[in-house]
């Protein structure tokens, strides 16, 4: 009688640990938005920014990662147009602590292909190695979600309608695949563990 009891106990413990490892992620990360002004006007308006964040939440929310817009500020005209690496690096002193920094600018030129304009970029500044996102005011929907995909460690893919692809089909639904979701969970765990980002999720409801 003793062996089966021990076995059952071991099974319960093992399954319990397994269950804890596979616990679904439920985290909300803070996003700070800095909007460049041009001729006294912000490069984009708040509803446009809110839509970008809402689209990101629609894609990441189902896998337990959400984003909350926690800060908003305007930055000077000198940052309205990004043409060079130096222009992007000049944003580094403006990053906030313990948030995902997103800069919204009026123009974002490719630094490798002059004349080509980008809709967004995930940038690591030199020499200080600060990581932040830059969105062009002309970015269509889901560009913030795409740049967040880079922020959470994902590269590009050619699969049509994948969030990390440039290819969209008419009427297609944008999606993340299992490997990308795993990477997002891995990076989320690292950000939390290192203190790089806090969870600003809503407090749990207690009875
Ligand atoms: Zn990309």
Topology readout:
Blueprint: H1 2-21, E1 27-38, E2 41-42, H2 46-60, E3 65-75, E4 81-82, H3 85-89, E5 100-105, E6 107-108, E7 120-124, E8 131-136, H4 143-151, H5 178-194
Helix pairs in contact: 2-4
The chain binds zinc ion.
Explain what this protein looks like in three dimensions:
By secondary structure, the chain is of the alpha/beta class. The protein has one domain: Collagenase (Catalytic Domain). Strands 1, 2, 3, 5, 7 and 8 form a 6-stranded mixed β-sheet that branches. The protein is globular and about 80 Å long. The structure holds zinc ion.
Mean pLDDT: 91
Radius of gyration using CA atoms only:
20 Å
Structural class: alpha/beta
CATH H-level superfamily: Collagenase (Catalytic Domain)
State the domain count.
1
CATH architecture: 3-Layer(aba) Sandwich
Distance between the termini: 41 Å
Helix tally? Answer: 5
Question: What is the CATH first-level class name?
Answer: Alpha Beta
Q: Estimate the strand proportion.
A: 15-25%
Question: What's the CATH topology name?
Answer: Collagenase (Catalytic Domain)
Write down how many β-strands occur, each being a DSSP E stretch of 2 or more residues.
8
- The helix fraction, in percent, is 25-40%
The ligands found in this model are: zinc ion
SSE sequence, one letter per element: HEEHEEHEEEEHH
Q: What would you call the shape?
A: globular
Give unreliable regions as ranges: 16-20
How can the largest sheet be summarized?
Answer: 6 strands, mixed
